[in-house]
Amino acid sequence: MPEINTWQIIKNNVLRRLSERQWLPGDTLPSEMEFAREFGCARATVNKALNELASTGILERKRKSGTRVTINPVRKATMSIPVTRQEIQARGCTYSHVLIENTLKRLPAHMTSRFNVPGGVKALHHKALHLSDHEAFLYEDRWINTIVMPDIQEVDFTTISANEWLVGHAPYSRGELSILSAAASADEALHLGIDEGRPILIVERTTWSDTQPITFVRLAYRPGYRLNSTL
Amino acid sequence: MPEINTWQIIKNNVLRRLSERQWLPGDTLPSEMEFAREFGCARATVNKALNELASTGILERKRKSGTRVTINPVRKATMSIPVTRQEIQARGCTYSHVLIENTLKRLPAHMTSRFNVPGGVKALHHKALHLSDHEAFLYEDRWINTIVMPDIQEVDFTTISANEWLVGHAPYSRGELSILSAAASADEALHLGIDEGRPILIVERTTWSDTQPITFVRLAYRPGYRLNSTL
DNA sequence: CTCGTTATTATGTCTAGACATATACTATAT
DNA sequence: ATATAGTATATGTCTAGACATAATAACGAG
Asked: B175: domain CATH number?
């Protein structure tokens, strides 16, 4: 454990004392001033160390009440959702993708509510298959709001994937993520080359630019895929 | 957007300018000193604002090179994995759980490697069903390393769930999380009250105390369950 | 005993400096 | 041309203060 900075020394020290059960869930830790005296540093340095720990969910901090050990720590797993190409290449496999559909059509009912647009509005329906070492890896079924992203109709998605184009050209946005398990639909099974009904992992994501939804995508991973993370 | 603090004003200002595509992915932002002059504040305040944005993955910061807009932002979704009881109660449902098994037995082969212990070692095999409004919600199949947690053999798991006991009594630890889709096994289907083979969401988690594995748990959620998160 | 007021206190934010350090750039010597 | 040493620079860390603010605790009046 390389301890170079004062705030990291303090952070690691507190972590060690927590693992040694010196402070139990619910207990109040010493105040910033007490820590500052103990470590012979400024209060701001203690503040940084404790805030760092609070951001991971181990500690809870409140004005006047002080710093306490979280009783029911909500385990915050930071899942990184990489661009698929990078994920595949990081495993040392070759990445390729095939454009399956890219047409402007009327939004189906379940999408108009999701995009919060009136019925009858058209949007870009985009389907693509991502391959790892030339084997089906991920099937992508996406709707793109062309009202917000009009330029996208000119893009050649045979050379760049929609995901990567959007990451580079859509302004930074917030999003909603949903992970579920489903039986492969006929469409998904066909493209992934598996039997219909097989359990596959689905990730659904809606991204927004300010108040406007940009895109909704349903990612169907091939059987055996795992989303991993450390906490 | 309530902007009370200087660093939040700066953060929101930068976010807005990013969404207006004033700086594109790969571009270098002004230095901290320039921002400090622009906002009439100390450099430390700018530092906090920009570090805040860097922690979300939007910006990348490096000494001397400066601050630049991330080209391929790894979407960091912070999934909160709450204690099941809280998750159910947060939905306004009543929580209950049933202890199905709690016996000391020899570790199967696939677990000895996971726990990194010699073969023949015994561990606590713990199975429980968590119910939401008296309906099966989550089936838990857990192994607990009794070498590390000897006290656990005395606990009455009919009154408190293993998860909650461990959260309160195991020292803070790191863990590995894996999310996958699987066909319900006979055991899982029986307890969840569903047909064998139905696609269900599985969360597997191993938690460690320092170098010692404490527990491995496989959580089988009822069909229709979604893990949600914002990014 | 209850309600409202006041003091206290721990954290939140901020400043104006300082030195440290990684790293890109430049100049010099080989 | 290439390796090496030096310089400049932007961020990282830190200090010793200051005032702000939320929330608890103590107090006092009715």
From this structure: 3.40.1410.10
A177 Cβ nearer than 7 Å to chain D strand:
no
Q: Is residue B1 part of a domain?
A: no
Least confident of A17-26, A28-37, A46-55: A17-26
Q: Where are the alpha helices (DSSP H) in chain B?
A: 6-19, 32-39, 43-55, 84-90, 109-115, 162-169, 186-192
Beta strand B95-106 pairing with B122-132: antiparallel
Residue/partner pairs of A131-134 with CB below 8 Å, 24 or more apart: A131/A95, A131/A96, A131/A97, A131/A98, A132/A88, A132/A91, A132/A93, A132/A94, A132/A95, A133/A93, A133/A94, A134/A94, A134/A96
- Record: contact A181-B182, CB cut-off 8 A: yes
Check if residue B84 sits with its Cβ under 7 angstroms from strand D.
no
DSSP states of A121-188: -EEEEEEEEEEETTEEEEEEEEEE-TTT-GGGGG--TTTS-HHHHHHHHSPP-EEEEEEEEEEPPHHH
Using C1' positions and the CA of B63, the closest nucleotide is: D11
- The answer to whether A11 touches A59, Cβ cutoff 8 Å, is no
At A124-145, the pLDDT tens digits run 999 999 999 999 999 999 999 9
Higher pLDDT, A182 or B161: A182
Q: Is residue A35 located within the same domain as residue A115?
A: no
Residue A164: domain span:
84-221
Strands A199-209 and A174-183: antiparallel
CA distance B75 to A80: 5
Sorting pLDDT into bands at 50, 70 and 90, what band is B191? very high
Is residue A192 a contact partner of residue A136, using CB atoms and an 8 Å limit?
yes
- Tokens 């890896």 belong to which residue? A137
